[in-house]
Write a structure and sequence with these properties.
The chain is mostly helical and 113 residues long. The chain is 55% helix and 4% strand. The chain has five helices and two strands, in the order H-H-E-E-H-H-H. It has a two-stranded antiparallel ribbon with strand order 1-2. Strand 1 and strand 2 form a beta hairpin. Helix 1 runs antiparallel to helix 3.
Length: 113
């Protein structure tokens, strides 16, 4: 059968994926496969250079999602999230450790994708 769960333990999978990604990028494992495609180049004509910013952007999204799940592990997550949402609406910025990124909901994540 299929089991669908929505809980914060998925954070561990996301963190493990981030660590694996960092190791792969550090050693440039399989990067050459992507540099063959024009999608992963910047510049014009002969001055094209490989650019893997798409991967870095995706890594940032996964890291923000992991931080969101980490923050959700605290019992007062909703109260703190609502407090930071109110203060950002009022125009002030907070340095709350529970505000991991500007992505605060799954709909925000979908809008960025």
């Amino acid at each position: 059968g299929l089991s669908l769960a929505n809980h914060t333990s998925v954070r561990h999978l996301l963190d493990r994926t981030l660590r694996a990604y960092d190791k792969m990028m550090e050693r440039k494992v399989n990067v050459h496969h992507y540099t063959k495609f024009p999608t992963f180049h910047t510049g014009e004509g002969r001055h094209q250079e490989p650019c893997l910013d798409e991967f870095d952007d995706a890594r940032e999204v996964v890291a923000a999602l992991s931080a969101e799940y980490r923050a959700a592990e605290h019992a007062d997550f909703i109260e703190r999230a609502m407090g930071s949402a109110r203060s950002s609406v009022a125009g002030s910025t907070t340095s709350s450790s529970y505000a991991p990124s500007t992505i605060t909901t799954m709909s925000d994540l979908r809008l960025r994708a």
